[in-house]
């Protein structure tokens, strides 16, 4: 039970309640959170917020917030929030001071000071300093804030301090307890009306692990954009600090800010704090400051092999011409022969200019150097998607995609990375011929594979040197030329553009396909016979001089055997190019691409893939990803063996983004279309007969993933569940993709898919029929999963709730979204009742006519089986 | 309008220059050709000279008219003129630079025209004087280099390239042009590369630069170390190589487009249906007009790049949307000899566009596709000497490509599918394939199609043996790669088989006439060995097991051709004579084919007899084939998957010498005086001063 205490309490909005007992009882803290109608965000709501608070609020400590907002209306709360914030700050400080007396360490704030450049409210300073300390947290544009109420604030603060010290200490104890995690912090930040608490949490963010906070970045930024000043002020220092530290965090923030601001009205959007912060980030004023910057400023300058500096400053012809002529002047001073063959280094940057410089976003007057390469890279990927959408056929799209990517390859490697990947790396090459256009009716999402070279820190590690495409082959031209009169020195000079390369013996040894060229020994090239008498195969026969006989039947048999060895590849179909690409086992693909890549020999070479979506809003996908990940960790924590696969989502704007593809998985539609088998038969074909180990484990995987996704589909009301949106991986897991219709939205509002989740007879067949053990296991898993999820409901609900703020997303359409979501957790039911519920859901879904109807509908309209 | 008038006026003035009333520049030329030092009386003589508009014709004719002894007298003055020309190139005043460049051009031409027979050293002596030649040429090349690489006017750069082209082509045989020795020492290779790597300069001067490079590479190619060869072979800067590829691509695309336009013009006409025969005659005429000559230079450049530079292979597959130049008819076109060489308008440069054009009808293309299309046009008609040469060069380039690992890799890349519309000769017995039906396939299919097309369409009296050999060798190289890498290409091999069998048939029926000129046994051996490849290694690269059955079916079906061939080679090899040995090689090679025929023919006959069927269907024959494999034993032949690598040195040297000579003549003709004395230039610079 001690676990659940902090878990349930966060949404409590009644901080003012001086419930003297430091450990809040479960009933008191959880009930208000449930009854909250919706999160208040502006002035008028302030009055409402204390109201649902528990009735036991003592009249003596009338909450100052409530009083003032009632009286002053629009302008009032703003000013008073200011007052209250500082006041609360003082209070907190006071309380903290007392605490420090007790336990000399005062752990968190000390930790803050070391990391945060923004002045964290230190425990030591007296109230007046603390109030002042809050000030710098504010952003520059808020200079016009009235200073006036400062005097009054002190008074009110003192008064409050006198009134509820016990409550504050209780809150503080919670905040400083080990159990206070990011989830709780976010929750308090969202629900608390106390500016002081908000400011405190804002500072407290510094002490959490970056990864933990990053998970909630969409929530943080959405609150920053759509909630009131205080929350924003509390969050901003942290965001700014992190932006200074990391390029990828900066870009992540900029993209999310852009995306989540987009639902605002144009006029307000322009002046909104979100837009301002985004501009600030993109203007690159948030360069690393302090000792870090002093330590390694030179490392940050060479961002791109082709210096982007040039086109950021003035991408005019003139600079290039001048630099070129400078180059030639210096060159022609030396002997002409000594010039390298590949002298026009200047031009390589010119091309980059031509393609990327011109289409930069209009408000970037001077795109910052620090962020430029990555932004340009993303922009060109999006540009490709836009252009592909205009082409009529898949085949043309594919060809165009390949050609566009091959042009993009010219600019790689560069200081760019794949935001969906976890490790630090530089992108070295895009194997353009492997890219495929995905199935979509009118948009042109496409999947690319990306060769990366891992590195320690992509900001400071040097960008890998470009290796030309065909460097993997054995040499021909120079070496075979009869003494070309070049001194060794000159030759070395001529390769100066790839300095690392010559030292890299490995590159030359990786030459397995060079075999063909080697096979003919040099002497035989000049043999008078047109067909050399020697061959690898026949050397033995030549030595023995005895003819070798082979049976024609053997040749024929070998042919059919070898053809039979690769049965499970899908046949190439120009209308569905992705099927073949996705069916190929990932390891196989990696090996194949690695063999063909000039960078493949490097030990830090990795292959990644990403789906580029252009014209699609991925914010809902991101929300779903967060919920899925939260549920996954909940189930892991509760040891429920449900299997789901949250795939990473990168939101770039409100209509573009990237998705991390699920590897080794094809859609059920593709399975059915290409194999022409039922799902069970396909399982048998892929994994073996029903009694084999392989089949059983595949079946178990199927059941565990089915249960996981059934719950997800039910809780999130995931719709549009046709077979194209359900993947099957090589181990038998199903994976649901495309969360375009969740919560309150469903496709075309046709009212199809009324069942809780998709459970077709085919699924049940794979599980061994409705009476089998595995099917019971499936239901049991669902029950366990639901119980576990219910236990941590707040953690899930919170993610969704915060994102509803200011959002126009279809999934938040209507007023009952949150209520519906909470109801689906069925907090009030006993476990027995829950079991009944699960049985009902499963039965209902199995019998559901609408699932079949919807599949039929999809088949008719989109040709999806 | 006024410009035209002005031009006319200028022309009139020049033409009237031979009349007694001479323009000042002519008088000054006369002074130079007098004994005295012209600067003696007028210290500012040279300064003034380069301010005058050059009269090229007069200067050249004057140089030509000088005879032997006079040369001695005026040599000092000519040396001085050359010296001052070179000096003037460094002037700030651009008019002087222009005039100096044109004067130099006239000097080179005039001196060479006069002294066709004279040795290179005499010419150098006459122009620069022996002792100073090295210094003068060094200065000249450095000036040109900095002009080409500098920020100056584009027309100035163009003029520099014209001067260089003029210099390179003054002799018919480039290797006899001794002055080029200085161009070797003072390399302008880097300047050429820089032009090619820069988008805008490539658009304007790319064509000239590429042609110049191709010619320079061929200077004393086989006799000495040519630094341009060395340098070209090691270029690895991708923008530059791409630039070179783009220039070639554009020139070939333009040719293809013109051909297509002409074809449509001739076919789409009112009488087209009635007079298809007459129409096709007109096509032939139209073809004549579409000169291949200017493209020889570009093709040579492509060859040198592919042959020498292994990095260039990647450029071949560098795809970009097909450039549609039809939209801009106003731009000059390289194919007619009257237009200047620098042709490709910069606006069409795709690399220039950050966003590739959005026309959905545009097919994505690459240099290789364009080249294949071009080859298909050129190979249609090989009667004309130039076309024969072009076709040969195309096949040589394809040979180099087929030997290259990387090229083979992308040719066979299953992910890179293209529709390649090859041009097919209209023939009586077949319809022109409808373009749209061509499926999208790996590029190697297009290469094979092209080879098959050539084999089928050139069985004529004037047999292009050399081209056939190359053709079959290219196929062989591709199959070797497929065998090695176990690539199962989904290609309709049947078309190839029947084309090859028909070729054997043709050789047989024209044995006597062909043997007079060619070693047909060599070709027959290559063809039979292709079949041997399929028979013994088919399991490694055939796409389906059915295709192996079909191979046997085809051999058995056409057994008469193989039987006749065997009889013929047996007959020749038993006689003594020059063909004894090559013929006996063919008899050995035929071993497996004959084994197959002898094995299956009786089986099929007995099957027919047993089932009382007079004519077996294909399916029935295949059935017989399938059920009788096991009793057939084949002999593994040696060296089937080996081939001789292409090497230019001994075999092709003569061809390339001739080719370069013809290109030189053509380029010289095209660097006309008109393009050198551009009024535009003068107009441009007159405003600067």
From TrEMBL, chain A:
Gene that specifies this protein: pi4kb
Annotated Gene3D superfamilies: Phosphatidylinositol 3-/4-kinase, catalytic domain (1.10.1070.11), Phosphatidylinositol 3-kinase Catalytic Subunit, Chain A, domain 4 (3.30.1010.10)
Bias type Basic and acidic residues, positions: 281-297
Biased composition (Low complexity): 10-50, 355-366
Enzyme nomenclature, EC number: 2.7.1.67
Keyword Protease: no
Protein name: Phosphatidylinositol 4-kinase beta
Catalysed reaction equations from the record: a 1,2-diacyl-sn-glycero-3-phospho-(1D-myo-inositol) + ATP = a 1,2-diacyl-sn-glycero-3-phospho-(1D-myo-inositol 4-phosphate) + ADP + H(+)
Subcellular location: Mitochondrion outer membrane; Rough endoplasmic reticulum membrane
Main location: mitochondrion
Family statement drawn from the similarity comment of this UniProt entry: Belongs to the PI3/PI4-kinase family. Type III PI4K subfamily.
CDD domains according to UniProt: PI4Kc_III_beta (cd05168)
One Gene Ontology cellular component: mitochondrial outer membrane
Membrane topology: Peripheral membrane protein
Cofactor(s) essential for the protein: Mn(2+); Mg(2+)
Pro residues composition bias: residue spans: 51-62, 118-128
InterPro entries named among the record's database cross-references: Kinase-like_dom_sf (IPR011009), PI3/4_kinase (IPR015433), PI3/4_kinase_cat_dom (IPR000403), PI3/4_kinase_cat_sf (IPR036940), PI3/4_kinase_CS (IPR018936), PI3K_accessory_dom (IPR001263), PI4-kinase_beta/PIK1_cat (IPR057754), PI4KB-PIK1_PIK (IPR049160)
Gene Ontology BP, a term: phosphatidylinositol-mediated signaling
Pfam families: PI3_PI4_kinase (PF00454), PI4KB-PIK1_PIK (PF21245)
Molecular function GO labels: 1-phosphatidylinositol 4-kinase activity; ATP binding
SMART domains attached to this UniProt entry: PI3Kc
Keyword set, alphabetical order: ATP-binding, Endoplasmic reticulum, Kinase, Lipid metabolism, Membrane, Mitochondrion, Mitochondrion outer membrane, Nucleotide-binding, Transferase
From TrEMBL, chain B:
InterPro entries assigned: ARM-type_fold, ARMD3-like, ARMH3_C
Keywords: Membrane, Transmembrane, Transmembrane helix
Domain Armadillo-like helical: 435-671
Location within or outside the cell: Membrane
Pfam family, one: ARMH3_C
CC terms in the record's Gene Ontology section: cytosol; membrane
Superkingdom to which the source organism belongs: Eukaryota
Protein's name according to its UniProt entry: Armadillo like helical domain containing 3
Organism ancestry: Eukaryota, Metazoa, Chordata, Craniata, Vertebrata
